[in-house]
């Protein structure tokens, strides 16, 4: 891999080492290596079906790894449950809309206090960052626009003070302007010291704010490096050239 | 005025109990997405225990604390842990069937433990004498307790759902359990809590309702009484607690006003009162706006393989030959029972087309059979006494009538889907069962006097078509079998036609089907009518095979039992209908009868045999609960295991030879007919196992590619093979050995 010696000395907050995982009899991840350094944004890129979402689900504790090691701050945590991972400070926003459609905005934030945050803090931060959510606080989340739902999902990361934020396909189904705004918020969170792992099909959305990028193809990470470097490789790899 | 006040108070009290029962339903539905048909059975079981505890000399308050504080929560938590947890991601029909199985199992268990022939009563709290007077009307303390409890529970649940985090988390667990985990909650804990609470509410309702509805404790009646609360729950569209409360009050008041102000002559008013909750349920379902079509396809774990017409024809011939050969072994009574089972199998076919092919639900298939039976009885019988026969015109008329009634029921319900449609058919079935099948009074319409169900039972004579007289068992059995085979072939043809594909599309995604320009209304209506016609035909044959039928032959519990067994066998398969129908019509009945005979014959072992008889019934329900683990049915598994036997001809021939030897032994009387049946079933079941062992010895099995990485290491050689199969990279790496680190190579996707 292309990581430098200096990078290797820092204990990564979140690390996958040779992780294998699959669905039933079909293996999807054939030994994935990834390391998220504290306070950085790692963009996990690659085409559909490459295993990005599965890798994210393994990190969040939603899917068991059948081989290799999953480490939080250097500690092996294979087989951790999602709720325990959440309590250890992993905030994961899954693919699609990470909201409960039949709960109101406020109730969604209330449900997000499962890791020990206070509802008042969450509301203050969420409505401060996205005023529209404040106006819609008693509206059912499922009845809001896609962008508003994604804001609500992201609000969970604002008020619960996580150590690691996992974002899976934040841009899915959203207008480009809203995507930019979302990633601006993510960039601010990184500035404040949060470590973020982003899986994204549309590299252009996330590469400008990424510290490191990894390219995932056919269930393995084929390259890790500076965003510009990976961007250069991607065109060729996508097209099979 | 006093009459009005009296009935108003009685109505409010009944409404209060309905509200408690209905809010338990709403609670579990909101937190697990499962509509719990067993709610009434849980109420019943708790109430029986309440009675039992008092029999042991416990004071009433202690018994109450025990059932509400311990039995209720424990029952709910156990149900969730053992059964309901496994139901995520299954189709509506599977969820319904599993709770129906719990209902049946609980009722059977209760009838086993507490002999139904013995009379039991539950007293009111503080006794019947404790009362106060409100505006000249006496109100008992027990009734005040009901009202107070209902108000407190409704308010408490409302607060729980909207004002506490635990309640919010419970609601979230239906939306997205995984997301709840990511939020640091345990969705299973939330669901378990809600089941415990729901079960406690059921038990509370049961203990309260028995004294106000007469005090007699009866497992079936009590279960159905709580099912009346479904209507109240539907007022709140299974979501809103306040609206459920209001609906329950309307229901309670309506039931009492009917009693107070309608003429009490004849059976009409009494029947109307009993079926009122179901009429209201139907109206509410049809009138209240329901969920819009969901856009996404419904992804479930059920998988069915549609048959080809040719294979259906071959198997139909095999079935006819097999049944004929087997009938040679049976005694006359055995043949009669078998023929009855075959008519049930025909009714089961109506479920295959409706649920298996079109994905719609009918919880009252026997009711359509009842419609057809009533029509056939009135219009199709000629001759009297022993010479009485059904004629073909009568049967055709009955089938048409069943189809029309099916269409009539489906028409207002066409906007409904899944659970709502299922409940509408349930309401219709109960309505029919109470209003028509109990209607023994004489009516006068257009100057014609008639009685729908004279004397409470109908004598349905056998069918005669020209020279074919179904008086003797064998011709009756063979006719039913041939009809089953013909309808089965017809259904296979239907399934593989354009119409059948449209049905399958509607099942997978109604929204997508509508967008393709299909007329969903016409599709649903037509499939419902086809299904009702088949159920009608089966019903008439069933009635005629039984001889004398009454309301008990067409009950809601009977319909549910049949549906459950068909789902257990595999509702997407014609063979599933055969197996399920035979089990419903023959299986348990024969086993229970056998054990009862044995109990009579061997007095020293009577207890053991009686227990075994009960156990058979409970076991069938247990099998139904297992549907959650295997939603495609056991026929699917057997067919799958035989598919792998194709290459092992010696095993198949061997199996055939063993079958032939068994048959010869049976014909010559060396072994009995039942021994033969059981041995033959064992051969059928064991053959794939033997085959697998034989084939493994040959060791010719190659790991399929998709199992690479699991059964075998994911080698570079394999990867190269995959790439070549995809036609992608071979040009890139000519003659180069597989790269050790593919990640380093510039590999294409």
Automatic annotation (TrEMBL), chain A:
Source superkingdom: Bacteria
Claim: Transmembrane is one of the keywords in the record: no
GO MF annotation terms: ATP binding
Cross-referenced Gene3D superfamilies: P-loop containing nucleotide triphosphate hydrolases (3.40.50.300)
SMART domains, per the entry: AAA
Entry keywords, A to Z: Amino-acid transport, ATP-binding, Nucleotide-binding, Transport
Domain ABC transporter: 14-239
Pfam families to which the protein is assigned, alphabetical: ABC_tran
Family according to the record: Belongs to the ABC transporter superfamily.
Name under which the protein is recorded: ABC transporter ATP-binding protein
Organism in which the protein naturally occurs: Actinomadura violacea
UniProtKB/TrEMBL annotation, chain B:
Main subcellular location of this protein, as a coarse class: membrane
Source species of the chain: Actinomadura violacea
Family: Belongs to the binding-protein-dependent transport system permease family. LivHM subfamily.
Matches recorded under InterPro entries: ABC_transp_permease, BCAA_transport_permease, LivM-like
Annotated transmembrane regions: 6-27, 34-53, 59-84, 96-114, 141-161, 190-210, 222-238, 245-264, 270-288, 309-329, 335-354, 361-380, 392-411, 476-494, 525-548, 554-574, 606-627, 671-691
Protein's UniProt keywords contain tRNA-binding: no
Name assigned to this protein: ABC transporter permease
Compartments in which it is found: Cell membrane
Residue ranges with Low complexity bias: 730-743
Bilayer topology annotation: Multi-pass membrane protein
PANTHER family membership: AMINO ACID ABC TRANSPORTER PERMEASE PROTEIN, BRANCHED-CHAIN AMINO ACID TRANSPORT SYSTEM PERMEASE PROTEIN LIVH
Origin: domain of life: Bacteria
């Amino acid at each position: 891999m292309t990581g430098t010696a200096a990078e290797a000395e820092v204990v990564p907050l979140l690390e996958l080492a040779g992780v294998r995982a699959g669905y039933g009899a079909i293996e999807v991840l054939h030994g994935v290596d990834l390391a998220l350094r504290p306070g950085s944004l790692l963009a996990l890129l690659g085409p559909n079906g490459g295993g990005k979402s599965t890798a994210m689900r393994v990190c969040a504790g939603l899917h068991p790894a059948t081989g290799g090691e999953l480490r939080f701050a250097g500690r092996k945590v294979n087989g951790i449950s999602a709720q325990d991972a959440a309590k250890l400070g992993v905030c994961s926003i899954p693919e699609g809309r990470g909201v409960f459609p039949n709960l109101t905005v406020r109730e969604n934030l209330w449900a997000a206090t499962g890791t020990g945050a206070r509802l008042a803090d969450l509301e203050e931060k969420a409505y401060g960052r996205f005023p529209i959510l404040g106006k819609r606080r008693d509206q059912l989340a499922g009845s809001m626009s896609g962008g508003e739902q994604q804001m609500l999902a992201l609000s969970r990361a604002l008020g619960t003070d996580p150590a690691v934020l996992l974002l899976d396909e934040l841009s899915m189904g959203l207008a480009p302007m809203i995507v930019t705004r979302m990633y601006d918020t993510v960039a601010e969170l990184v500035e404040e010291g949060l470590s973020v792992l982003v899986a994204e099909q549309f590299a252009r959305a996330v590469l400008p704010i990424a510290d490191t990028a990894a390219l995932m193809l056919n269930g393995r990470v084929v390259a890790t490096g500076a965003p510009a470097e990976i961007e250069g490789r991607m065109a060729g790899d996508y097209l099979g050239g | 005025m006093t009459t009005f006040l009296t009935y108003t108070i009685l109505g409010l009290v009944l409404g209060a109990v309905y509200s408690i029962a209905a809010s338990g339903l709403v609670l579990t539905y909101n937190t697990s997405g499962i509509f719990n048909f067993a709610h009434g059975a849980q109420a019943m079981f708790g109430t029986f225990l309440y009675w039992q505890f008092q029999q042991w000399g416990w004071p009433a308050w202690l018994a109450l604390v025990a059932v509400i504080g311990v039995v209720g929560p424990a029952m709910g938590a156990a149900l969730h842990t053992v059964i309901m947890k496994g139901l995520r991601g299954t189709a509506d029909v599977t969820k319904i069937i599993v709770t129906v199985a719990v209902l049946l199992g609980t009722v059977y268990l209760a009838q086993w433990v507490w002999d139904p022939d013995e009379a039991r009563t539950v007293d009111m709290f503080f006794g019947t004498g404790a009362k106060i007077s409100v505006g000249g009307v006496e109100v008992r303390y027990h009734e005040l307790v009901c009202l107070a409890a209902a108000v407190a529970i409704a308010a408490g649940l409302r607060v729980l759902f909207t004002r506490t985090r635990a309640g919010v988390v419970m609601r979230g667990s239906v939306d997205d359990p995984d997301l709840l985990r990511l939020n640091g909650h345990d969705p299973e804990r939330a669901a378990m809590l809600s089941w415990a609470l729901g079960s406690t509410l059921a038990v509370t309702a049961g203990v309260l309702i028995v004294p106000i509805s007469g005090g007699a404790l009866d497992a079936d009646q009590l279960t159905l009484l709580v099912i009346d609360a479904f209507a109240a729950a539907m007022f709140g569209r299974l979501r809103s607690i306040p609206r459920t409360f209001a609906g329950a009050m309307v229901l309670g008041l309506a039931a009492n006003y009917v009693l107070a102000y309608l003429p009490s002559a004849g059976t009409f008013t009494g029947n109307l009162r009993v079926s009122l909750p179901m009429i209201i349920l139907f109206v509410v379902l049809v009138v209240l706006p329901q969920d819009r079509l969901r856009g996404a396809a419904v992804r479930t774990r059920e998988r069915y393989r549609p048959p080809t017409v040719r294979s259906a024809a071959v198997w139909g011939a095999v079935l006819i030959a097999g049944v004929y050969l087997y009938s040679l072994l049976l005694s006359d009574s055995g043949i009669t029972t078998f023929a009855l089972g075959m008519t049930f199998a025909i009714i089961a076919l109506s479920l295959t087309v409706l649920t298996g092919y079109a994905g719609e639900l009918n919880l009252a298939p026997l009711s359509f059979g009842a419609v057809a039976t009533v029509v056939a009885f009135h219009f199709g019988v000629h001759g009297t006494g022993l010479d009485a026969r059904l004629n073909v015109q009568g049967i055709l008329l009955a089938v048409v009538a069943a189809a029309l009634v099916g269409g009539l029921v489906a028409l207002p319900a066409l906007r409904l889907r899944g659970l709502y449609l299922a409940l509408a058919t349930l309401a219709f079935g109960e309505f029919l069962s109470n209003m028509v099948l109990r209607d023994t009074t004489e009516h006068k319409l257009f100057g014609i006097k008639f009685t729908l169900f004279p004397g409470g039972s109908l004598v349905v004579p056998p069918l005669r078509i020209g020279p074919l007289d179904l008086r003797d068992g064998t011709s009756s059995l063979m006719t039913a079998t041939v009809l089953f085979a013909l309808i089965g072939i017809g259904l296979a043809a239907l399934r593989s036609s354009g119409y059948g594909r449209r049905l399958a599309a509607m099942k997978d995604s109604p929204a997508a089907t509508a967008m393709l320009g299909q007329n969903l209304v016409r599709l649903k209506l037509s499939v419902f009518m086809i299904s009702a016609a088949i159920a009608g035909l089966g019903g008439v044959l069933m009635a005629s095979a039984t001889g004398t039928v009454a309301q008990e032959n067409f009950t809601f519990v009977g319909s549910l039992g049949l549906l459950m067994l068909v789902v257990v066998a595999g509702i997407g398969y014609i063979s599933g209908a055969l197996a399920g129908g035979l089990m419903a019509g023959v299986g348990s009945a024969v086993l229970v009868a056998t054990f009862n005979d044995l109990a009579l014959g061997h007095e020293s072992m009577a207890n053991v045999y009686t227990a075994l008889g009960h156990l058979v019934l409970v076991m069938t329900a247990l099998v139904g609960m297992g549907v959650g683990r295997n939603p495609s049915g056991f026929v699917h598994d057997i067919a799958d295991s035989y598919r792998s036997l194709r290459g092992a001809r010696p095993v198949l021939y061997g199996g055939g030879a063993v079958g032939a030897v068994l048959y010869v032994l049976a014909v010559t009387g060396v072994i009995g007919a039942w021994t033969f049946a059981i041995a033959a079933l064992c051969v059928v079941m064991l053959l794939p196992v033997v085959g697998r062992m034989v084939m493994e010895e040959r060791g010719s099995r190659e790991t399929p590619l998709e199992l690479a990485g699991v059964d075998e290491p994911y080698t570079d050689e394999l990867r190269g093979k995959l790439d070549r199969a995809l036609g992608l990279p071979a040009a890139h790496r000519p003659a180069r050995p597989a790269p050790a680190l593919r990640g380093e190579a510039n590999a294409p996707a």
